[in-house]
């Protein structure tokens, strides 16, 4: 039996390599294809290894128990790749200014989400599921924001999940994913994460996911308000080294960006207006930290956009270890990210408002008075 199972698993792995090669070659062009071609692409993932799958089903030397394990193992790739494809389609839509369809009652929010009881405990499956939920969560929150819904993020997502009856058995899992999701990318906010975990714990006091969520919170403990800043070393446009700590004694607004980041560059017109507004405030410094790997491209961008006033530095692998990189020190998974450091070198927030948002209020003025 062991030899039979070992041989089958080996053959399944060979087929998975073929399927992965096919995915790598066809995914990008299939994302923007017609509906028929998209479906043809998804159907093609099911055709790999048909003979082997039939052999497993018809082999009487394999017990029903092990037969089901092998079929599940075989099918996992097909299911996760469909989820991966659906995620890429949604991301592509959002990047092109379109939206995922969400009605006013949120009744169809999770209509295309696949949840399989046979795979829910598999780490590979749960990773793909988590990734699949990202654009769905984002679009629900965007809808909430755009329509001025007063209910909080946690309650709003929870309402969407509760309304979908096929998710009844997975509410706890999905809400845990949501709380974890809100800790990532530009959403990182220690106080918000504490609030979300408390809400989750109230709903699911015995949840097995609480330890993992609290572990995430520990990771961000050093970045909460009032903690000492994580110092940054970078090079200026002339190649001279300088540090964030060189600006201690000032309120420092840090802009983490890159020339290839559209949203980062899109904020620069507002950055120009913001620096002009505070040009008579010597205690406020604007620091732009580029994460470009191409130093020459960064220099050319700054030469072309000299109206962006402030201190400019670059961090890349030419001179800096990964452990000292701003994205590592401040747990940044997506840019732009904005950070505020007070005059004593302590963190005001590791997830500050964008320049376009700061222009509409006097938040920086209130910090300058401290």
UniProtKB/TrEMBL annotation:
Record PROSITE patterns: THIOREDOXIN_2 (PS51352)
Primary location class: other
Stretches of the chain forming a coiled coil according to its record: none
Location(s), subcellular: Cell envelope
Keywords from the named record: Cytochrome c-type biogenesis, Disulfide bond, Isomerase, Redox-active center
Pfam family, one: Redoxin
Example of a GO biological process term: cytochrome complex assembly
Domain Thioredoxin, first and last residues per copy: 223-369
InterPro entries, per database record: Redoxin, Thioredoxin-like_sf, Thioredoxin_domain, Thioredoxin_ResA/DsbE_sf
Superkingdom: Bacteria
GO molecular function: isomerase activity; oxidoreductase activity
One annotated Gene Ontology cellular component of this protein: cell envelope
Name of protein: Thiol-disulfide isomerase/thioredoxin
Naturally occurring in which organism (per UniProt): Dyadobacter jejuensis
């Amino acid at each position: 039996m062991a030899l039979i199972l070992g041989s089958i698993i080996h053959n399944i792995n060979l087929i998975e390599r073929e399927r992965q090669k096919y995915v790598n070659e066809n995914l990008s062009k299939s994302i923007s294809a017609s509906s028929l071609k998209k479906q043809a692409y998804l159907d093609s993932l099911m055709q790999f290894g048909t003979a082997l799958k039939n052999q497993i089903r018809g082999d009487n030397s394999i017990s029903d128990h092990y037969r089901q394990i092998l079929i599940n193992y075989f099918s996992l790739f097909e299911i996760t790749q469909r989820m991966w494809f659906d995620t890429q389609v949604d991301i592509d839509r959002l990047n092109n200014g379109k939206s995922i369809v969400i009605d006013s009652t949120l009744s169809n929010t999770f209509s295309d989400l696949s949840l399989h009881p046979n795979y829910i405990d598999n780490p590979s499956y749960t990773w793909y599921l988590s990734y699949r939920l990202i654009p769905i969560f984002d679009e629900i929150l965007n809808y909430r924001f755009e329509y001025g819904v007063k209910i909080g993020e946690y309650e709003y997502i929870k309402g969407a999940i509760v309304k979908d009856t096929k998710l009844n058995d997975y509410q706890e899992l999905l809400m845990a994913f949501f709380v974890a999701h809100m800790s990532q990318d530009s959403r990182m906010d220690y106080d918000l994460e504490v609030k979300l975990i408390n809400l989750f714990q109230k709903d699911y006091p015995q949840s097995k996911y609480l330890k993992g969520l609290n572990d995430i919170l520990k990771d961000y403990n050093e970045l909460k308000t009032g903690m000492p800043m994580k110092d940054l070393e970078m090079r200026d446009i002339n190649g001279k080294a300088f540090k964030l700590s060189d600006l201690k004694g000032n309120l420092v607004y840090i802009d983490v960006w890159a020339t290839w980041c559209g949203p980062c560059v899109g904020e620069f017109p507002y950055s120009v207006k913001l620096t002009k507004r505070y040009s008579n405030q010597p205690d406020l410094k604007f620091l732009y930290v580029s994460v470009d790997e191409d130093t020459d491209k960064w220099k050319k961008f700054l030469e072309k956009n000299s109206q962006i006033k402030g201190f400019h530095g670059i961090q890349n692998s030419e001179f800096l270890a990964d452990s000292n990189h701003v994205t590592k020190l401040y747990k940044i998974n997506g840019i732009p990210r904005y950070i505020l450091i007070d005059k004593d070198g302590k963190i005001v927030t590791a997830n500050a408002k964008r320049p376009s948002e700061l222009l509409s209020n006097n938040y920086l003025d209130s910090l300058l008075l401290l």
